[in-house]
Amino acid sequence: MWGVRAPWERWALLCVNLQFCPFWFGNFPPPPPVPPPPIAAIAQFNVPVKVLQLWRIAAGILADAQMRVIFYTDNKQPTSSGTRPGPGTVAVADTSWVKSPDGREFRVHEDGKPKAPGEIMPARPAFPYGSQVTVYDGEQKVYEGTVQDTGRGHIRHGVLADLWIDVWYPDPATGRRNLKKQTYRVVVTAPTATGATQP
Distance between CA 161 and CA 147 in Å, rounded? Predict the structure, then answer.
């Protein structure tokens, strides 16, 4: 390996092979890569996103998200808003309903205090009564209605209160035919907004 090399050549080869030399202060690793800026910082300067957010606020859009959509057919009980369920009736989560760790479902006030026995407590809908609701399957509208009722399906289906709605159909067969899956894009528009269309 060494042949007849001079001592200084042998020492130089040793330094190269071992990637070390006593005349250096040490092997310095390459500098760490600069991390990319956080997503929030990018979104801050994302003009199209900001424009879309401002447009939605101006158009009165309360929600535009993938939601769990279930159907119900009961029309014997009045809705929580006092109307009679029928075509176009939409129920949203009653946010006063909560579930305890042991699985009990009960109602609480906005400050978290449980409802007293016999106390009459109005429903707290996730979206205001009268809000317009449109359910999309891709680009196709599969249901249009108005928020008139509330329920606690968000607890039973394990989703957030603002990601669940119940829509009314006259019978189970119609509901199963029109809602072939459970997750759809849902757009909720405030009652005071008029003429809002999707961009």
Answer: 14
